[in-house]
Write a structure and sequence with these properties.
The strands form 2 sheets. Strands 1-2-3 form a 3-stranded mixed beta sheet. By secondary structure, the chain is mainly alpha-helical. It has helices spanning about 15-50, 60-90, 95-130, 145-160, 185-190, 190-225, 230-235, 240-280, 285-290, 290-360, 365-375, 455-470, 475-480, 485-505, 510-525, 530-545, 555-580; strands at about 5, 165-175, 180-185, 425-430, 440-445. The chain is built from 17 helices and 5 strands. The N and C termini lie far apart (about 85 Å). The longest helix has about 70 residues, at about 290-360. It has 2 domains: about 10-330, Rhopdopsin 7-helix transmembrane proteins, CATH 1.20.1070; about 355-400 and about 455-580, Globin-like (Orthogonal Bundle).
């Protein structure tokens, strides 16, 4: 005769608990499982169409797919683990009890993999904003799945003990008078050392506090990196709030999504961590049974978290975009007049100081800036060492400046000896001249194919630059005498003047931005790359020139320098974006 253990009777904590368990762990959990599954399937479909078919952001897309898959596994694992029993209130089903140990371990693996996928996505979202790391999205196809596969294998290894935490045993069901299978906690799960070192400390590091700390730190880092990034854009004269919103919306959404992820993670998973600590603090299951209501709520919150993960990543951006547009629209309605007046004032300061700087530098503005940049980035000088002489052996001469108009051409004759058909005299007004006596600076424009070349023209320009920068090194004099050097310097001056004129004429914001980006793309196509030190010198040397101008008072000086600093920052940023090929189709 075989003796069987009597099955443990189900303990009712209170008369309300069966109803509570059926509603929370049964009906609500089932709804979350169904809606979460539909959302995850829709997310998989959306990611596939948006990323794989267009071959962009594939690694991040694979991580989103892995998150959706593991969340779906977790949802259905929880449904068969306890949801189906709670819905039917059939806790004595032999079939469900037999599969319970398997699904116990399965949902632990899925839960860990889901958390790690969220951490991986957070890391990749931070990396995507760094152009230097953009190459990771162009790797070989089979490498796209490396991170999700490694995370899945790691989750399986970490949760191997979960297969031994719950066991089934054959017992005798007294009320029914038959044999059946029941579920019980194993001796391993009840071991105090196992609960302290594995369940509390180890799993706290790999599934709760550790991932949460990583997400929190990355979110804080993202906020710090993005803080003040729009300051120069906001102060860019005619650049309206519409353009500012287009630039900052993606960065703002990235930050807000990360914050929402951290908040959701804390709210929906903190209770589970507290219950683990409470379980370790109790020597037996009596203390845990007294908190059975909190256990059911904690399980439901974990299911709710998995059902809304992809909703945050894929639908959160659309919702946030709508809210950001509404907020910016209301703000613009309140500050429209003030912003327009401030923008007009800053553009006037910019134009006025630009005119003074051109007159003060004798239109050597771009040459001085280029010289300072080349000192900080000497390899760029190689582009000026390849200039060839013309067919008649005479080097090409850049358009002369006002200083050349009073110099002589070899025989002492003025520079007005050029053919009339090949030159033109362009007056350049200075705004601050007295009324009725506007000072006109004559600028002679010569075509390259006609006219006599004045040998002293290039020497005059070189002498002006040397006089403006008395500390120039002797070895740099050859560079200052290079006609290509002066030509590029003039291009810099005309380019900045063109941008200022576009803002004065209230041209569309996007037109100004695309003008800068196309120049950056042209530099990239020619293999011209500026280092950070060169860009820093570009801004510093320009501000030094503006600082030499005369101002009515210190307030005007500070406002002008601030306007120029903002203007130069935007030029540098958009040049870099153009060099990386960003937004050239806009």
């Amino acid at each position: 005769m075989v003796n069987y253990t009597v099955c443990h009777p189900r303990i009712n904590i209170s008369s309300y608990y069966p109803v509570f368990n059926q509603v929370v762990c049964g009906f609500l959990t089932t709804v979350c499982v169904l809606l979460g599954t539909v959302g995850n399937i829709h997310s998989i479909k959306a990611v596939h169409l948006a990323n794989f078919d267009k071959n962009r952001g594939v690694v991040l897309a694979v991580s989103l797919l892995a998150l959706a898959i593991w969340d779906t596994f977790l949802l259905w694992g929880a449904f068969f683990y306890y949801g189906l029993k709670s819905v039917t209130q059939n806790h004595k089903s032999d079939v469900l009890n037999l599969i319970t140990p398997f699904f116990h371990a399965f949902i632990q693996i899925a839960n860990t993999a889901s958390i790690w996928c969220v951490v991986s996505i957070t890391i990749q979202r931070v990396e995507r904003r760094k152009p230097s790391l953009s190459f990771i999205y162009c790797s070989i196809y089979r490498r796209h799945f490396r991170v999700p596969i490694l995370l899945s294998l790691g989750a399986l290894i970490v949760n191997i003990p979960a297969f031994l935490e719950v066991v089934t045993y054959l017992c005798y069901r007294m009320p029914e008078g038959r044999l059946g299978y029941d579920v019980n906690v194993s001796s391993l799960r009840l071991n105090r050392y196992y609960r302290v070192w594995y369940k509390l400390f180890f799993r706290m590091i790999v599934t709760s506090c550790g991932p949460n700390a990583i997400i929190l730190l990355l979110t804080a880092l993202t906020v710090l990196l993005l803080k003040g990034s729009n300051r120069s854009r906001r102060q860019l004269f005619q650049m309206s709030e519409n353009l500012l919103d287009r630039y900052s919306s993606k960065e703002t959404m990235q930050t807000l999504i990360s914050i929402m992820l951290v908040v959701k993670f804390l709210l929906l998973r903190s209770l589970s961590f507290m219950i683990d600590i409470y379980e370790v603090a109790t020597l037996d299951q009596k203390g845990l049974q007294s908190a059975i209501y909190f256990v059911d709520v904690s399980n439901f919150m974990i299911i709710l978290n998995s059902a809304t993960n992809c909703l945050i990543f894929l639908r959160g951006s659309t919702w946030l975009q709508t809210k950001i547009v509404q907020r910016n629209t209301m703000r613009r309605k309140k500050q429209l007049c003030i912003e327009n007046l401030q923008s007009l004032h800053r553009v006037n300061l910019l134009f006025k100081s630009w005119q003074h700087a051109l007159f003060m530098t004798n239109r050597q503005f771009g040459v001085r800036i280029l010289y300072s940049m080349l000192l900080k980035n000497p390899p760029l000088a190689v582009f000026f060492n390849n200039s060839k002489d013309t067919s008649n052996g005479t080097p090409p001469v850049p358009p002369p400046t006002p200083a050349c108009t009073i110099s002589s051409c070899g025989n002492g004759s003025p520079l007005t000896s050029f053919p009339v058909g090949g030159s033109s005299m362009t007056p350049f007004p200075v705004e601050d001249s007295p009324p009725g006596k506007r000072h006109m600076i004559p600028v002679i424009i010569l075509p390259r194919s006609h006219g006599e070349v004045c040998p002293s023209a290039l020497n005059a320009r070189t002498a002006e630059v040397v006089a403006a920068m008395p500390h120039s090194k002797k070895r740099s004099l050859d560079l200052l005498g290079n006609p290509g050097f002066h030509e590029v310097g003039d291009r810099i001056m005309h380019f900045m003047g063109e941008l200022i004129d576009l803002m004065r004429m209230a041209q569309p914001d996007q037109q100004i931005i695309m003008r800068i980006r196309r120049v950056g793309a042209l530099h990239q196509a020619l293999g011209i790359n500026f280092t950070s030190s060169a860009w820093k010198e570009f801004k510093s040397s320009t501000l030094n020139i503006i600082e030499e101008c005369d101002f009515a008072n210190d307030q005007e000086r500070n406002e002008t320098l601030e306007a120029w600093s903002s203007f130069l920052s935007v030029i540098i940023r958009e040049m870099k974006m153009g060099s990386s090929g960003f937004g050239l189709q806009a």
